[in-house]
Amino acid sequence: MESDSPPVAFPLLSTWIDYTYKPCTIPYRFPSDPPHQPTHTELLWIDLFRKSIPSLKKQADADDTVTDASSRAAKFAQRYSTILDELQDDPQRHGGPPDCILLCRLRELCLIECGFRDIFRRVKDEENKKAISLLGDVIRLADSIEDKGDRMEHLLKGVFAGNIFDLGVTQLAELFASSGMPFLGSYEKLLSRPWVIDDLEQFKLRWLRKSWKKVVIFVDNAGSDVVLGILPFARELLRGGTQVILAANDLPALNDITYVELVDIISKVKEIENGKEVFYGVDAQNLLVVNSGNGLPVIDLSRVSSELAFIAADADLVILEGMGRAIETNLYALFKCDSLKIGMVKHPEVAEFLGGRLFDCVIKFTENAS
Question: Taxonomically, which superkingdom (predicted)?
Fold first, then answer.
């Protein structure tokens, strides 16, 4: 489903009288703060985004789909640096005050303004291809675990292992460039439990007690994240009779998977057996991909595609995956149904806010009380 309609609010957001949805998790400022003076938190995040400019400039410089990419990449770096300087001088500039959504949006606008549409397209294509070649082994390893609860725990840890692939984070971009970050190696290097937010046991108990009828998963990165982390997890849900809706970005943002790219991946991993679509032996007719309407590595659920809103309206579990969608935004979002927020903490500023460790894991499960 492609989105060509105006954005709407995600229909499963809570409508409690005393609840107002706020997408950003971290409070960047309070009403008492001087409006034209940046807060300490705003300055931290401006600096965080400033540190990402060199790696993004390097990636843009290598974009062979853009004429004169080198000079355009330099223009992007200068333009975005100037905007960050101006926000540092006066946080009310450029639609501020700044938060992670605005800082991401301004960065994407600068890239587009300089002629770049998808600076990570080549590396995403390469990583998707590599991950698809490994998918069978990952699924066979999961299937070898007979206990249903243990298998689900293994698959959730696999989501964390896959989510390490994030070229939008400076440290991970440098590490990936030097090592390639193999999936199984990432799995073995997950920080020990208990994690900073650790509802794994509660989620397993709910899963063992009763499967969900329809699940919406807001996916994150290309490559090992979506292919080796999310797809095996989604397959397990399908095996239990659940309909699974994968919601992917409309527009490119860093190395996030897009709707078009995910449709292509799904077409490559599905097969036809006896006239039915299967995904490694599991009926895949209930595996769908929808355009979320989003174009950022974070998401404001008050603005999603009408197609997603329609197909998700009767879901009984919402999953937000990745640091941007599940931690930096929406960690405290409330829903009319069960919800799972799962991701890895990749910024020191986020780790400090949560009281955890860098590369700590977050699995926040909230069961609908109604």
Answer: Eukaryota
Q: Which residues of 344-355 are buried (b: 16+ CB within 10 A; e: fewer)?
A: bbbbebbbebbe
Nearest to residue 10, comparing CAs of 24, 18, 21, 1? 21
Residue with tokens 């082994």: 137
Q: CA dist 6 to 95, 108, 114, 290, 320, Å? A: 21, 20, 26, 15, 22
The domains of the chain, with CATH numbers, are 40-113 (1.20.1700.10), 121-366 (3.40.50.10880)
pLDDT digits (tens, 9 = 90+) for 292-342: 999 999 999 999 999 999 999 999 999 999 999 999 999 999 999 999 999
Report the pLDDT value the prediction gives residue 163, as an integer from 0 to 100.
Answer: 82
The residue type of 296 is: L
> Peptide bond before 97: cis, by omega within 30 degrees of 0?
yes
Which residue type does 367 have?
E
Distances (CA, A) of 313 to 12, 91, 108, 203, 259: 6, 37, 30, 22, 19
Query: What would the mean pLDDT of 247-274 be, rounded to a whole number?
Result: 96
- Give the Cβ contact number of residue 366 at 10 Å: 18
Q: Where are the alpha helices (DSSP H) in 191-326?
A: 200-209, 224, 231-239, 259-269, 306-312
Cβ–Cβ under 8 Å, residues 154 and 145 = yes
| Paired tokens of 76 | 């992007």
